[in-house]
Predict the structure of Alanine--tRNA ligase.
Amino acid sequence: MKSQDIRKQFLQFFEERGHLIVPSAPIVLKDDPTLMFNNSGMAQFKEYFLGNATPKSKRIADTQKCLRVSGKHNDLEDVGFDTYHHTMFEMLGNWSFGDYFKKEAINWAWQLLTEVYKIPKENLYVSVFEGNPAENVPFDQEAWDIWKTLIDEDRIILGNKKDNFWEMGEQGPCGPCSEIHVDLRSEEEKAQVSGKSLVNNDHPQVVEIWNNVFMEFNRKADGSLEKLPAQHVDTGMGFERLCMALQGVQSNYDTDVFTPLIREVEAITGKKYTSNDVKDISEEQNKTNIAIRVVVDHVRAVAFAIADGQLPSNTGAGYVIRRILRRAIRYGFTFLNTKEPFIYKLVAVLANQMGEFFPEIKTQQNLVTNVIKEEEASFLRTLDQGLQLLENVVKETKGNEVSGAKAFELYDTFGFPKDLTALILKEKGMSYNEKEFDAELQKQKDRSRAASETSTDDWTVLIDGNVETFVGYDEVEKEVRITRYRKV
Ligand code: ATP
Ligand code: MG
Ligand code: MG
Ligand code: MG
């Protein structure tokens, strides 16, 4: 089944059960001081759960563009190295705002996975909250009893507070969750190790796909819990992971969400990607694979962020986007031998593939392409020199720690985000002195504060020589060519 159809079926299933289908909120949040990017489906509905706003419908479903690269959820370090964490991913979700509760949510989730998508029941596990008396939260007997009618008891796993209890903050709505995991191991592997202990990431082919959160309590200031007057359901299923399960592959990168992008990288670079079922690959091939995964993952994050109005810049959310792109550029440069801009060429593939469902990636295709191309060209101008400098510094360094002043020079003169320097050093079993780096940064800030009091925010770009403020993609002429950013 094609990914397009998998997404459609999810939405259709919940529409048939009375849910209003809404579009994804933008990936970038401009008016939430607590969050830079949407990192889950529920973020756009937060006010409904807090009772500050009323939803259009008590049942809603959608797919949400999410980015997990900062704050509480930061998966960046895993991306490229594992096969199921992305920077940008889609989270399919269904919600009940004071309407249906555990019985419907669990039964529908099960029906969708096993009857519509036809995942064999013996490949699924579920988890239920075990309870935590010290913190006043009870075992989720209700969820356990419902699951028992659907699945063998030995496939219901008890989970702790970290994995199976959701809280919005120290106070406010909270409740237990029940997760669904899929076991995609080969039959041989299953025969070697069996059963329960495999849930929760003990094996790369046993993966969490769907989290069902049941908001039933309110935590008060004194730490005690009371039942909420109305109870809510909030679910999130990783779309790319679901596609992996349904397309009979063992890696998200072997699904049709990623293969068109991978084929394009292969065509541009002449390198080959080996899918996950090819075992015993060389060290060099492994590095190529990681680099290709990083590139095809990161281009999605960067492209969707730009299409939603977040341009790369030197501050705030813009700098997060720039860092992601520079990480991809360096992986290409070092492991795919790309000395010229090439990531921008993937935008056309992405627009072609995702444009039907997410029209913004099509309407903003020119802008996104030009911005990425310009970013690549600009970083490539200093990348080689920076890498050489780092190489020399590494040679001269006794021990494992490079000086913070050198890491700062790379940041300041060569545009190396500090996590990029850290990543390159980590590949050599080294690190840099962060305290020294921070001290250098502070010195520079003091200098520039003294030099100038003017500053611009990260939405300001220089368009063909004229300073303009970018206020969202609707307002920017599509044909306008961005030649250079104003340095902030
Ligand atoms: P994991 O334990 O695998 O990191 P999670 O428990 O952090 O996932 P949730 O916050 O429960 O994830 O999000 C709901 C669903 O979104 C997950 O069950 C998973 O399918 C998907 N998901 C979460 N993080 C990612 C990611 N970085 N890339 C792709 N899918 C993800
Ligand atoms: Mg996680
Ligand atoms: Mg988890
Ligand atoms: Mg989870």
Notes: The two ends are 46 Å apart (CA to CA). Residues 3-246 form a domain with the BirA Bifunctional Protein; domain 2 fold (CATH 3.30.930.10). The longest strand covers residues 206-219. The chain has 16 helices and 15 strands.
